[in-house]
Design brief:
- Chains A, B: Pfam families: MeaB.
- Chains A, B: Belongs to the SIMIBI class G3E GTPase family. ArgK/MeaB subfamily.
- Chains A, B: This is Methylmalonyl Co-A mutase-associated GTPase MeaB.
- Two copies of one chain form a homodimer.
- With about 325 residues, chain A is an alpha/beta fold.
- Chain A folds into three domains: about 50 residues, no CATH class; about 210 residues, Rossmann fold (3-Layer(aba) Sandwich); about 45 residues, no CATH class.
- In chain A, about 50% of the residues lie in helices and about 10% in strands.
- The first copy, chain A, contains twelve helices and seven strands.
- The first copy, chain A, has a seven-stranded parallel β-sheet, with helices on both faces.
- In chain A, helix 2 packs antiparallel against helix 6.
- Chain A is globular, with a radius of gyration of 21 Å.
């Protein structure tokens, strides 16, 4: 435990479940920083998780992710639901992870005790998001959030990651962000459960929506599969946000009815467990032979050994 | 070996080194598909690698990456250099990896025997790009390419990956892709060695360049460190491309003189070896207990066990 406050893990979990924001924040810090008590925290949270709906929000820079998250949080609060928000920022040397303070990002909700907001840096290392975000989601889930929103910058790999974390993945687009082929290149067509064309008051919004629908309709989906809806929003004014939330809720209901929720969560748990186990193996290598690894890498870089042969040496030493 | 052609690995490598495009293509397929002869291929390539300069090109969708790659390839060819291009597409259900044929993407160079072009799908799985792209780079390197261009869609995680692969990372921006804060959110400020504001004939290009320079100048860099230049280009007309290439070459020269090239390549080899070794461990888990892993994931999803305790079970069984 941290010395300040001197709370035990069970005590922190109890306070988080009572809705104490400081306890929630402390627990997220503990899971984010690979604290020595991480395992104890995870064990203590276990019995209280699985209730929250996890909504991933992604899209290219500039589509209005923060504004849309803000508007969705307002709609969820108007509906009386408790909300957690995890905003993932790729690490930046200028920000140390989170570029803007939470209050700046989510100014409308900073003082609402039923909304937990947390910026998480991906810390530059590959798979960092994959490793600590699920644990932070568990904290917010255990703290009684009805919905946990995971907002991530990015297109490509990190999008695939957020889709892996979420029960429902919302993909945002905006008019004029490039044509349909660009959208497809960004790999977004495979991951969305719900699509929103934001900035729908701008020129080209109808075209973007039409193109997106056409491309989505080209995918072969089995009978009974979910067909991702496309809605239009103007997040800055709140226009279309209630409709968007209705589609998210409809998807949540479909997930539960179809059995897909259990399947997704099992897949997610599997990736999570694998990621933790792989990290443990990697740490063992670092501890056991950090300098060996460096010497081996130098030999590979010089062309004295090929990378597969080098990897065999490491695995043999596991 | 594949039955068609019935070439041995040493024969394929010899033919690739002689500049035979079909042999290069076959070798890339072998390393991309985790073929049983992958290890043999890597061992055979080892002695012939380390000469090519690896240029990573990245940026958000719509900035003109393919057009810029095309223009840079033209400039490199005009200079008499042999070029390899790896275009990374996140997998898409609509494309099976590569959305457009190589000829469509890089039409100007499709018939030039001194240019190898290959689209690679990231195959949806995490770390897929990290695993097979370095091997494909080695194939092109061994085939005598002076420059290997790795063009990747994406912002965020996959950008960090491309920076990990490249000797020189070129980050493209375009005017009107969102303000400076958006650029910083996308994590691009930490990875570029050279920046180009493409579509410099459009409104806002000067502002984008100015903002970018200001943000770059805020980073603390030690004495003697490389200071990333910002150039302006109109890739569609070729304007500014020679100047861009000159900056890339200047960076290549700096890398060699400063000793940074060896350091980067050692770091890269280390990540590569670790990724291969981790994949081997993971495959061992799958083979040894794929169904155990699924049962364990179901228990985690149901909340019967926490993910860290589950991971301990797997690691203990390694």
């Amino acid at each position: 435990m941290t010395r300040r406050g001197a709370s035990s893990v069970p005590d922190l979990v109890a306070r988080a479940r009572d809705g104490e924001a400081a306890a929630v924040a402390r627990l997220i810090t503990l899971v984010e920083t690979d604290s020595p008590v991480l395992r104890e925290v995870m064990a203590a949270l276990r019995a209280h998780t699985g209730r929250a709906h996890v909504l991933g929000i992604t899209g290219a820079p500039g589509v209005g992710k923060s504004t849309s998250t803000n508007a969705l949080v307002a709609a969820l609060r108007a509906d009386g639901r408790r909300v957690g928000v995890l905003a993932i920022d790729p690490s930046s040397p200028f920000s140390g992870g989170a570029l803007l303070g939470d209050r700046v990002r989510m100014g409308d909700h900073a003082l609402d005790p039923e909304v937990y907001i947390r910026s998480m840096g991906a810390r530059g290392h590959l798979g960092g998001l994959a490793r600590s975000t699920p644990q932070a989601v568990r904290v917010l889930d255990a703290a009684g959030c009805d919905v946990v929103v995971v907002e991530t910058v990015g297109v490509g790999q990190s999008e695939v990651e957020v889709a892996g974390l979420a029960d429902t993945t919302l993909v945002l687009l905006a008019p004029g962000m490039g044509d349909g082929i660009q959208a497809a290149k960004a790999g977004i067509l495979e991951i969305g459960d719900v699509y929103a064309v934001n900035k729908a008051d701008r020129e080209g919004a109808d075209r973007t929506r039409r193109e997106l629908r056409t491309m989505l309709s080209m995918a072969e989906r089995p009978e009974g599969a979910w067909r991702p809806p496309v809605v239009q929003t103007v997040a800055s004014t709140g226009e279309g946000i209630d409709g968007l939330l209705a589609e998210v809720d409809r998807h949540a209901a479909w997930l539960a009815e179809s059995g897909e929720l259990a399947r997704r969560r099992t897949d997610r748990a599997r990736s999570e467990v694998e990621a933790i186990a792989l990290a443990a193996v990697r740490e063992r290598w670092e501890r056991a032979g950090g300098s060996d690894l460096h010497a081996l890498a130098e030999r590979v870089a010089r062309g004295d050994v090929d990378p597969y042969a080098a990897a065999d040496e490491i695995v043999a030493g596991t």
